[in-house]
């Protein structure tokens, strides 16, 4: 039993995306948290995925998990999700400042929805609950909960990359927004590179200071812990699902249609961060430069549409349709089509069978927080005849899966050469590389990720204070920015603080 279980407190997960039972969860965060909560039970709070005129709150209980979700009205959805989160934060954090479309109204909507989440959630909390907030949609949530008097332990995990400070400062009001990270007890990131970016930003842009043990002190004295926690998959379950997948008609049909050709597979949300145009171009280059492979390979790209209300995503879809049509038109023969481009999502069981049927897993994002598909591909392989992963060095997964073929996705020739190498790799080398990566994934699986994060969250402080269920509705001012009890820190003088005095706040919208 770990510290979190020993406490007896509920785990309360808060994320924009909630994977409801029986829904296909296309997105790493949703699939990972569903598995984590299924193991331990708890409450999952977030957006229902619905956009309605009259937003409602929905409650249900299944498989040991309480689900509480809220709808968004059109304005909130547009400003918060399709606006600030996915047109400002997402492109910037994925090193695409050229795609950032910052609008003040979007930021206001983002703050409005965070405040709405804080108000609804605060009423549901118990004193010993441990909160785990996820991702870039909800950066200021802890600060807003603290304003409402919530003193519970709150951890935050960023699922996407944290870019260098030079990029973060492009965001208007970045100090006010990112400074609120100090209201968490623990901030987790996927890689050491992300952690260094956070430390560097806090030191040089916020005016914070490093404290012993990987803690950071904000200018107002708040201290929080920061650490690296690479997310993972339920390795044993994925491997078992892949073994069982032979029975699935969908998997049998794919294998029959491929016959004895080599299958290359890609599985990605239709997102510009995933490097799909470059990947299609690399595959075209492979066919052009290696004519002997024509007829011998099939590239299956599964790409469920994502964030279609954001123009860049719609443009990408059109671009890929054109590219796939062009490549197939040029190289296809009456009995062979080189690219199978599928804008549909599949359940995990089917995907694991598809991964196992593929000689090559092609995962070439331009930037990616982690990329769980890379890990799922490895875990799904047949140990006696494993396929080869070709992986972008800019995916967080590359930090752990160094035994794969690492490529720079912008270098089409490098990707093409890696594909040739993967397709011709000896069984002996494939087995050796696969075993090394599987050792990593068996040790660092989803349970290990969750436990290490929660252990670290528990270690941040020892004293619990009452939650709003017991505390007055509005906490006294002194409680609002108190540093963690086990980590008291001197308060900086107000002149030292680079964080703007005006708090990030927006009028809250009525919500029924
Ligand atoms: O919720 P959506 O807007 O439909 O997007 C799906 C998710 O995409 C992102 O996933 C990230 O989390 C993965 C797990 O840590 C990680 O492997 C991947 O690299 C990230 O891109 C996003 O961060 C989630 O919030 C979304 O739910
Ligand atoms: O048709 C699909 C496509 C993707 N996924 C899942 O969606 C997640 C994608 O996570 P990843 O970290 O690779 O990228 P993200 O989409 O979160 O950026 C993985 O668990 C995939 O198995 C799925 O279940 N069905």
UniProtKB/TrEMBL annotation:
Annotated GO MF terms: alpha,alpha-trehalose-phosphate synthase (UDP-forming) activity
Keywords for this protein: Glycosyltransferase, Transferase
Catalytic activity: D-glucose 6-phosphate + UDP-alpha-D-glucose = alpha,alpha-trehalose 6-phosphate + UDP + H(+)
Record note on quaternary structure: Homotetramer.
Identification of the protein by name: Trehalose-6-phosphate synthase
Species annotation: Aerosticca soli
Pathway the protein acts in: Glycan biosynthesis; trehalose biosynthesis
Domain of life: Bacteria
Family that this chain belongs to: Belongs to the glycosyltransferase 20 family.
Keyword Cell inner membrane set for record: no
